Amino acid sequence: MATTSTIRCPSAAARASVPPVSRASSSGCAWKDTSVNDTVAVLQPPVLETPLAAQRRPGRHAVRAVGAVALAGVLLGYVFPRVVGSTVTDVRAAFGAVSSREAAVLVLLWAAGLLTHSFVLTGALPGLTRRRALTLNLTGSAVANTMPFGGAAGMSLNYLMIRTWGVESSGFAAFTLVTNVWVVLLKLAMPVLALAALWSTGGPVSAATRWTAVASMGALLVVLVLLAVGLASRRAAERAAHVVAPVVVGIGRVVRRHPDPARVSASILDCRDLVADVLKRRWGQMSLGMLGYGLLQAVLLWACLHAVGADLAPAAVLAGFAVDRVMTLVVITPGAVGFAEAGTAAALIALGGSPAAVAAGVLLYRGFTFALEIPVGGTWLAGWLFWRRRATRAASGTAA
């Protein structure tokens, strides 16, 4: 049975009347009078439905999951080989060129990317430890990569974890919004950077590449303008909240929810205040972490291609990486399986890559950035559940 959690945020006057908490929480976040590690603390959550509040329809979800997996199978088994114009035998032979030393380097690059990305997470949720940031990243990805539209399921898992660490629901809302905005900004910026790299090196630039970069630039500017206006002006944020609130209410009615427009508007403003405070204090850390993460993933793609013999110019690899980042926005299949591989391989082949080697390199890269996260994250989740259960039993025994 699905549970619904309604989260409310009190007025500023009510928050000011709450007495300080003198001890640290179990999450490792030092909650003081009005701040957590120099970041304004939120004592009550805003009006936001948690990811677990969605109604579950097992039959419909099962049909959707089977359909998505079938589509992914068709894309990988039928469309992908025809896009790259190579045979399974040739691709398998290219995989055989990867040495054990090269495989070890690829693993280190992948792990370094995860570690770098943790700086984005610790910046978005002050007080979050490095280990817990890695836990959120790996376990959330493991769940999200196993089902279509899996981001909601991964978000639900992250929500449960964060709540067990003593963080308020409002902190989770701001954390989720900030991290997702930073991810989208990176994905939208990549086509523009790739186009600039191709032009500067004299590489071939197709019409599709130009239009993709133009569309990404337009979307990037829209996101940046909205973010800047919403955070710089409280009055502009209030106007935006009054515009967005009816839309949220309308969507709620479609899914048989009836949120109050005034409460929705207040929740948007409260969340805006949280995000503004986090970005004011931690935008530099999050930006550097996201740039470093993107750079390491691009290097991982280059290393995967190099390991299988597909030696392409750095600008071409950057263009392929940009396509991969954009294609991962397609959430019809788990982790955009089929779409990301076909799109990335097609772009790299168009830029002069050998079909068989490019196919092997892209599949190897996706093996790290998508497939490997499932068993690693699943194992990490099992360990977290084990230690959580053990800690709960120990606490119960002590209380008894």
UniProtKB/TrEMBL annotation:
Keywords, ordered alphabetically: Cell membrane, Membrane, Transmembrane, Transmembrane helix
Main location: membrane
Sequence intervals crossing the membrane: 65-84, 104-125, 171-199, 211-232, 370-387
Protein name, entry field: UPF0104 family protein
Compartments where found: Cell membrane
InterPro entries: L-PG_synthase/AglD
Bilayer disposition of the protein: Multi-pass membrane protein
Protein's organism: Nocardioides pocheonensis
Pfam family, one: LPG_synthase_TM
Entry's Gene Ontology cellular component terms: plasma membrane
